[in-house]
TrEMBL record:
This is Small ribosomal subunit protein uS9c. PROSITE patterns: RIBOSOMAL_S9. It holds the Pfam family Ribosomal_S9. GO terms for biological process: translation. The lineage of its organism: Eukaryota, Viridiplantae, Streptophyta, Embryophyta, Tracheophyta. GO terms for cellular component: plastid small ribosomal subunit. NCBIfam families: PRK00132.1. SUPFAM superfamilies: Ribosomal protein S5 domain 2-like (SSF54211).
Amino acid sequence: MALSISSLASSLSSLSFSSQISRNPNSISIPQPPKTFPISFSSKTTRSLSIAATVAAPAEAEPVENLKKYVKSRLPGGFAAQTIIGTGRRKCAIARVVLQEGTGKFIINYRDAKEYLQGNPLWLQYIKVPLVTLGYETSYDVFVKAHGGGLSGQAQAISLGIARALLKVSADHRSPLKKEGLLTRDSRVVERKKVGLKKARKAPQFSKR
């Protein structure tokens, strides 16, 4: 018994551990913990790219008070006291138009026409067609009082009012204006809603059961 214990102790003492990685599969290797390496960040000067954009400021509209004074100075006695005047209607819009010799200004409700009609090219074309037809686009200033309806209806009402006012300038203007259909009052309006229907003609969905 004492012999077997002494032989076991001698065999254990002969056993050695290697701390290095060995290619021999029979040897036991203990890996070392990973070493930490300090990382240093070098501060470099960064250049920031700045882009400066210049936006052109919109042209300021002329104040309403100044235009009111201008219109009153051009139209003494108001709209009703003028001689070259015409009334146009479209849907629910009504426009009273006064023409005076000038340079082609359009003033609607004491505001510039381009500002009042929100720069819409179609509406601006409506109000210029009668004068362009006769070649008077730079010969008359147009002063308008419009109310009712929307801007589209008011623009077409102004067109009819200008055409009717041009008839008072000369009776010879009737033929070219009538040929372009500028003297015809557009009688189309929104059709009224009917009882039992959703709109003028739209019916509710049919259900058999």
